[in-house]
Amino acid sequence: MSNSRVDVTQPSSSELALSRVFAAPPAVVFDAWTRPELLRRWYGPDGWELVTCEIDLRVGGAWRFVSRQPGGRQIGQYGVFRELEPGRRIVQTESWEDWNPGEVLVTTTFDANASGTRVTTLMRFPSPEVRDMLVKSGMADGYGAAADKLDRLLAEGE
């Protein structure tokens, strides 16, 4: 599958991988992925606003995001960083505040290539049903829209 220059694959029955190339070096893309002042500018599809962005960027540190959809509904996500290699890799857990399908393990890698950086996010869901529900909800479309916003932010040299 492909969407908005995002490659979408399903490596196993309970996994989803999203991959996209950004025209910036890995350290710059990593910063945009982990600094609240930058995340607020691109996280989520058009019309969404990241109203809470708390990040304790260290192994064992917690993170929490609250996004507001255009209609006003707020969605809270949170987790803990399990592994960090600045500029290269993040492994974290992800859960939701208003829905408990079980914890998701998210591994994001930042790999340099001739075009800049390939970011690959591998999500390991608690079950195939949870993965399939999120795929059907349009998660890949939302990821693609946010990636487009990140692409524009990186082009500005931020």
Descriptive notes:
There is one protein chain. This protein is an alpha+beta fold and 158 residues long. It has a single domain (2-155), classed as START domain (Alpha-D-Glucose-1,6-Bisphosphate, Chain A, domain 4, 2-Layer Sandwich). 27% of the residues lie in helices and 42% in strands. The chain has 4 helices and 9 strands. The protein has helices at residues 26-34, 36-42, 128-136, 139-155; strands at residues 2-3, 6-9, 15-22, 49-55, 62-68, 74-85, 89-96, 104-113, 116-124. It has a 9-stranded antiparallel beta sheet with strand order 1-2-3-9-8-7-6-5-4. A hairpin with a 5-residue loop joins strand 5 and strand 6. Helix 1 (26-34) packs across helix 2 (36-42). The protein is globular, with a radius of gyration of 15 Å. The N and C termini lie far apart (30 Å).
Which geometry do the CA atoms define?
A: globular
CATH class: Alpha Beta
- The overall strand count is 9
Low-pLDDT ranges:
none
Q: Describe the main β-sheet briefly.
A: 9 strands, antiparallel
Name of the CATH architecture: 2-Layer Sandwich
- Tell me the β content: 35-45%
Q: What share of the residues lie within helices?
A: 25-40%
The strands making up the biggest β-sheet line up spatially as 1-2-3-9-8-7-6-5-4
